[in-house]
Amino acid sequence: KTKNQYFQEMIEEIISWGLPFAWVTGDSWYSSLENLKFLRKRNLNALFGVENNRIFSEEKGSYIQAQKIEYIDQDGKVLYMKGFGQVRIFRQSRRETTRHYIMIQSDTDNLDRLSKFDFDQLHSAHWNIEEYHRVLKQECHIEHFQTRSTTAIKNHIFCALVAFIHLEIKTISGEIKNWYRLKRD
Fold it and tell me: pTM for this structure?
């Protein structure tokens, strides 16, 4: 299966649980047209990172890459994304990197109501998820195991999650400044 098939299966499973959620978020790996159309078909709101070369238009038929859009104010800009439809795009510059994010809503009339505050709130939650996965991989080594048996793999994943919880407790209690500090020191 492709990563997009796994993504769609996970969303379908969550929907089948009856779990209500307001937003779906993901990085640019999951912002394919296929996934975005899948979410729109299910009336789900979403925030996704998009690559700088993703193509947008202020008017249908006249396209430009995200990185070449001259002006996107702090409240973002409603544009037409090629092959998809209307989105609100935000530009974020940190250090020497510029990133672009799109917000889609099941009711496209609400795109005009989204603001920098809405983006900041959602992006903060998105970034916390990104950090969680990064720490699980880099500090807790969830992906590094030399076994093939199901029980051993489950034990390794469990231990990695317990390690993350211990790092989080140490961070919250002030014993360490952040997750990476312990390894560095």
Answer: 0.81
